[in-house]
Write a structure and sequence with these properties.
The chain has 84 residues and is α+β, with helices and mostly antiparallel strands. The chain has a single domain (4-80), classed as RelE-like (YaeB-like fold, 2-Layer Sandwich). The protein is 27% helix and 32% strand. The chain has two helices and five strands, in the order E-H-H-E-E-E-E. It has helices spanning 9-16, 20-34; strands spanning 4-7, 42-43, 52-55, 60-67, 72-80. It has a five-stranded mixed sheet. Strand 3 and strand 4 (60-67) form a beta hairpin. The protein starts with a strand and ends with a strand.
């Protein structure tokens, strides 16, 4: 059974700023991979310990966390991590 996926307000705004191509890629990534295997992403460290990251493009990343008990993936950001 796939996990439910929810977006934070900030991530929802980030998605609105993505190109149509990246929006489509994000949808495919969530539906085809993340919802079925939430631990597919890279485990983050430091200030972002407990979060995971998946590459959306060369510079854009999806940062998310997993609530295993409720089977929910929370997407926190969906944008560049280079400060642009």
């Amino acid at each position: 059974m796939p996990y439910d996926v929810r977006f934070s307000k900030v991530a929802f705004k980030d998605v609105g700023n993505l190109s149509p191509r990246l929006k489509k890629k994000l949808r495919e990534l969530i539906e085809g991979r993340l919802a079925h295997n939430p631990y597919a992403g890279k485990k983050l460290m430091g200030d972002l310990a407990g979060f995971f990251s998946l590459r959306l493009s060369f510079k854009d990343r999806v940062v998310y966390s997993v609530d295993e008990k409720r089977r929910i993936i929370f997407i926190h950001r969906a944008k560049t991590h280079y400060g642009e």
